[in-house]
Amino acid sequence: MDPEMYSYVESAVRSLYRAAMGWAEGRDRLPRVAMPRQAVTETGWPAAAIEQPVVYGEEGLVAWSAIVHLKSDAVWGIPARSIPEVRKALDWAVARFHVPKTEEHGLPILYAEQFNRSRESWWQADFLRLILEVIQRAEATQVDLNGDFADIYRPLERARLDTSLPCDLLVPIPRLEFDDPLQIEMEEDVSLVPIEPEMQLARAPLVEPDGHIGAYRAAAATHALRFKDVVISNENYMQRMVSPLLGDDILSIQQIMRIDAALQAVSIGMLQPYGYQQVVVVPDGWSDGWRGHLPSVLKLEVANRAEAGRWHFNPWRDPTFPWPNEIAERIPGAWKQLTSERRGYAYAGRRLQMLATRDNEADRILDCVSGLEAVLMRPRDRSTGERFALRAAARVVGGNDCDSPEALEGFWDHFERAEQLYKQRNKIVHGGHHGELLSHPSDDMRQAAHHGEFLLRWTLGKLVPDEQWVTAGELHNQGIAMLEGTTRSLGSRPDLVRRARTLLGRLSL
Q1: Which pTM was predicted?
Q2: What is the rounded distance in angstroms from the CA atom of residue 77 to the CA atom of residue 38?
Q3: Which DSSP symbol is given to 207?
Q4: How do the domains of the chain map onto residue ranges?
Q5: How far apart are CA 497 and CA 485, in angstroms?
Q6: DSSP-based three-state secondary structure for 211
Q7: What's the Cα-to-Cα distance from 403 to each of 28, 158, 174, 398, 478, rounded to whole Å?
Q8: Helix and strand counts by DSSP (H, E) for the chain
């Protein structure tokens, strides 16, 4: 702990608190900290959210940050710099933390002075926020500010002075629910866990009509991915605090990709698309602040990882659909494949997640085909569309009795659908669908996208470690076996027999 910094904070906290209590005496309707409450929708989803950051009333924790301000000419509230101990603390903070920028750092001379004044104001506001966080946390946890409050102060100091910050990450997954709360270990530091009631309140999103995320949609989660022992950079504290894209600047690309891979494992294991809108940073020994008595968290909004569709607009109208707990046992297997050296599987998983966020049929088709090609095709393959369809159909039906008419009929049904999917892909890539892309997709495009998603999800789901890994070459051989079976056992369909013979001449390895 920095003794000098603590001494300034200690003096400022006590002086400001005395002044604030004197100012508030006799005033009833004061701004109060808005505390979320446990709630569920009529259909059973969690719905803890913050309607507004501050409420006015006679009960609850006083929101001192809405009363104390840096303006010296305000007609209401407490000017912070009117209190000598606070003014000294703020001036000390500017001298300690503010590094002036000049034209030598790439800033034009005409703007350097204005820019530096803005930065000085930011450091004053941030240090005042630290002082107020101490006061509000002490009130919430009933700590006497005339005594030792170092336990409250220390995490706030670490958030400003430490260059790296240890934490856990929680990634709530909306609309994923099981018969009973469960915990699935995917790796030593990665797991799927139930969200505890207190954490549901701490992570409660703020309802904003023009916000990046839907608050009640993000709130509708009972389980979350947990990543333990994560370290985030704090080399530039000011940048971390003011960045409008917190998630992109606080989390590294590697951390974001790991979150995405874990979500892909959930989607593959459960055979359903899932997304996320929030990453909750749970600090270990540091804090940017608290809401009342709740645990300290840093809520990062993620706008481009939510699945598209009707759920995006009306989540509270859909009933809960709990999964049997045993289905989740597939998730660790999918995670193992995604983090293995089989890059085709990882790429296909990435495409599956991107597919879930699309609301455009053409993009969905491209994601499906690109992901399937990663696990079905090889660079040297020719007659790509036919080989693609052969192996996709073999992935679904292959391995069955090659002389069974039912299996052969199923094989050809999936072959034709996969072939149409690839033809739609070619039209999109080569400009054949430019009219539809500007208006509405055709039924053929919709059907192709729907079947493509089924094929990709089925293919990845079948390749988890409890099933035998099948290479592109082995799938090809299974498809050839189904073609040969057609010539022997599907005489009732002469059209398919002729097609099978033609394909055997072109596709035999």
Answers
A1: 0.85
A2: 32
A3: -
A4: 3-35+45-161, 163-339, 341-509
A5: 9
A6: coil
A7: 84, 70, 45, 12, 13
A8: 18, 10
- 59: its two tokens: 């009960």
Determine which helix (DSSP H) or strand (DSSP E) holds 134, and give its type and residue range: helix 109-141
Question: Which pair of structure tokens corresponds to residue 368?
Answer: 């499906």
What would you measure as the largest C-alpha separation in the chain, in angstroms?
97
In sequence order, which residues have a C-beta less than 8 Å from that of residue 332 and are 6 or more positions away?
Answer: 184, 185, 186, 265, 269
Tell me the CA distances in angstroms from 379 to 244, 335, 405, one per residue in order. 42, 26, 33
Q: Which residues make beta-bridge pairs with 33?
A: 54
Please, are residues 370 and 351 in contact by the beta-carbon 8 Å criterion? yes
Q: What's the pLDDT tens digit per position in 340-367?
A: 877 788 899 999 888 888 878 888 999 9
Measured distance CA(229)–CA(209) in Å, rounded: 35
**How many angstroms from the chain centroid is the CA of residue 501?**
49
Residue 225, CB half-sphere, CA atoms under 13 Å: how many? Answer: 29
Question: How many residues make up the chain in this entry?
Answer: 509
Distance CA 449, CA 418 (A): 10
β-pair type (190-194, 298-301): unpaired
d(CA 402, CA 490): 10
Q: What is the 3-state secondary structure (H, E, C) of 68-120?
A: EECCCCCCCCEEHHHCHHHHHHHHHHHHHHCCCCCHHHCCCHHHHHHHHHHHH
Note the pLDDT tens digit of each residue in 50-72.
888 888 888 889 999 999 988 87
- Amino acid 290: pLDDT: 94
- The Cα angle at residue 75 between residues 73 and 76, in degrees rounded to 5: 120
Q: Which amino acid is at 296?
A: S
Task: Report the distance separating Cα 84 and Cα 283, nearest Å.
Answer: 33
188 secondary structure, DSSP code: T
